[in-house]
Structure formats: structure tokens, C-alpha cells
Amino acid sequence: MRFGKEATEENADDSTAARYQASRFIFVALSTLLFAAFAFQFWYHATRTSATVDEPVHILAGHRHWQCGDFGINPEHPPLLKLLAAAPLNSRNLIEPNWECGSKMTSKFDSFSFGNSFLADNGVDDIVIPTRLASAVMSLLLALFVFLAAREMFGRSEAVTALALLAFEPNLIAHGSIVTTDMVLTTTAFVAVYALYRFQKNQSWSRFLVVGLAFGLLLAAKHFGGNLHTDFVRAFNRRRIYFSSTGKPTLEAINQKHGFFRRIFSHRFNYSVGILWFSIPFDSDRNRGHSFSCRLYQRKRSSRNGRIFFRENC
After folding, report:
1. What are the domain boundaries of the chain?
2. Are 168 and 143 spatial neighbours (Cβ–Cβ below 8 Å)?
3. Average pLDDT in the 150-175 region?
4. Which residues are CB-contacts of 39 (< 8 A; sequence separation ≥ 6)?
5. 181: Cβ–Cβ under 8 A, 6 or more apart, which residues?
6. Sign of the torsion formed by the C-alpha atoms of 228, 229, 232 and 234
7. Using CA atoms, how far apart are residues 87 and 264, in angstroms rounded to an integer?
8. Using CA atoms, how far apart are residues 35 and 146, in angstroms rounded to an integer?
9. Half-sphere exposure of 121 (CA within 13 A, CB side)
10. How many Cβ atoms from other residues are within 10 Å of residue 295's Cβ?
């Protein structure tokens, strides 16, 4: 009887392990298939649709950002999406607009006019398709973080369901494969919320730095991201006070927690602005400054031509 009982338990363990392996294989296969379907739809949409009205100016602005650190063109949007989209153009010889890069403040009319000319002179598909595919990286990152957040918060089945809903959402597919700021704002906002959620679970310095980085990228994605800082922190405070306490919180406990989180918000905001300052110059006279992209371009031009390009302006 003992031998038979042990054999039955061993068979039960084997069947449980087999079911676990099968469910894990299905989970990995479905997740991979959904990611691949999402990426394929971006490629299909990016290569078969015409340029929207905002894309030429965003592409030209991103190219000028990389070229000489000129952030005076299209200043109504921060540079994150434009830098990412225009990165594939850095290694190409292109027909440039008829003014020296960084030599003047570019008006809104000129940015749209010369943006269209920039695409027409260099080939619309040759410019639009690679920049669209580069900007689609942010949409793929959104899918990845939605998947990771759903798995951490709820489980495997919920993560696959969330990924399936996202992978076949027409609005996300349409906006995720064009060079506009909508998806980069969506991605950075979600990543900021997810980072804040993980920081709430474990308030370590490493997670605090991740929160600051996420909110810095949110500021570099769109100016509206600055409005979300206070909303996120307000929601975070309320959750900590009213949902993490056992029993009814006292006024003293509320004041203590509000003071703590005000300090957290202050440090995180300063860190976020530092990241934004690193990505875009704040020079009101020339609209240029000590930006990362400008210094990077200087090194590239210096190694290529043996001289420093726009050193006095960057």
C-alpha cells in the first residue's frame, strides 16, 4: 500500500509539472505572437499610409536637433520623440534647408513649409518610413510595460488579455506608427505611474531613481506632462493615507505622511527637471545651449573634419 501511494503521488506530481510546463509554453507563445502582431501592424501602417500634417515639421525639427542642437524650431513640443524619430537620419547625406543650421529662429510657418520641402527633396518614403519605425519603439515599450504591470498586479492570464486588447486597438496602431507626440506621452505617463506603483510597494533608492527618470522622460515627451506630476502625487498620497493604514488615520499621521511625500515630490521633481535640462537647452537668446545632442554632434563633426563645429554656440 505504501508503494502504491507513493507511486500515485509521484504520478500526480508529474502531471502537475506537465500542466505547468504546458501552461507556461502557451503563455510564452501567446505573448510572443501578440508582440509580433503588434509590431507587424506598425510596420504595415507605417509603410502604406501618407504623411500627416504634423510629421514633416517633427522630422525636420528632430533632424535639426541632432544636427547642431537647434531647439528653436518647433519649440512647442519637447525633443524626446523628435530626437528618437530622427536618429536614423544621422548617418545619411541629405538635402538641407537653405539656411545654416542654428543661424536663426525658425518661425512656425517656415518649420511647416520647409518640413514639407525637406521630405519632398529627400524622398518622402525614404524619410518618413525609417522615422516612423523609430518612433514606433515607444509604442512597443508601452506594450511591454502594460504586459509587465498586468502580470505583476494580476497574473499571467490578465497580462495576456491586456496585451491582446492593446495589440489590436485601432487608435494605438494608428498613432503608434506616426511621428507625433501622442504615443510618447501615453508611454511615458504609463511608465511613470507604474514606477510610482512599484516605489509605493518598496520605497528604495533604486526605485526612487527610476521614478525620477520616468517623470523626467514624461517632461521631455510633452509639456502637458508637467501637469500630471501633481495629479500623480496627489493620488499617491491618498492611496498611502487611506488604503495603507489599518483603521481610521489620525490627523497627526496624515500631516506626517503629507510632509514625507511633499519632500519625496520635491526631490523627484528636481531630479526630473535635471533630466529635462540635460535633453534640451534653456537659452532664451539663441535657443541653443549645452545639450547632449549638440555635444554629440560636435564630437562627430570634430572627428570627421578635424575641427569643432559651432563650439561657440553649443
Report:
1. 1-180, 184-280
2. no
3. 94
4. 136, 140
5. 58, 77, 81, 221, 222
6. negative
7. 34
8. 12
9. 14
10. 13
Q: Is 143 exposed, middle or buried (0-12, 13-18, 19+ CB in 10 A)?
A: buried
Of the candidates 208, 230, 220, 235, the one whose C-alpha atom is nearest the C-alpha of residue 292 is 220
Can you give the pLDDT at residue 74?
85
**In this structure, are residues 230 and 272 in contact, taking their beta carbons and an 8 Å threshold?**
no
Contact 111, 57 (CB under 8 A): yes
C-alpha cell at 171: 487608435
For 57-95, write each residue's pLDDT tens digit: 999 999 988 988 888 888 888 889 999 999 999 988 888
The rounded Cα 52 to chain-centroid distance in angstroms is 21
Q: Answer whether residue 225 shows pLDDT above 60.
A: yes
For a pLDDT cut of 90, what percent of the chain falls above it?
39
Check residue 290 and give left, alpha or beta (phi > 0: left; psi -120 to 50: alpha). Answer: beta
State the cell numbers at 94. Answer: 541629405
Model confidence pTM above 0.85: no
Would you tell me how many other CB atoms lie within 10 Å of the CB of residue 286?
A: 17
Encode pLDDT of 87-100 as tens digits. 999 988 888 888 77
Q: Which residue has the higher pLDDT, 101 or 308?
A: 101
CA distance 264 to 283: 29
Amino acid at 298: Q
Question: What backbone phi and psi angles, to 5 degrees, belong to 49?
Answer: -125, 150
Residue 13 has pLDDT above 70, yes or no: no
Q: What is the amino acid identity at position 80?
A: L
Buried/exposed code over 102-131 (b: 16+ C-beta within 10 A; e: otherwise): beeebeeebbbebbbebbeebebeebbbbb
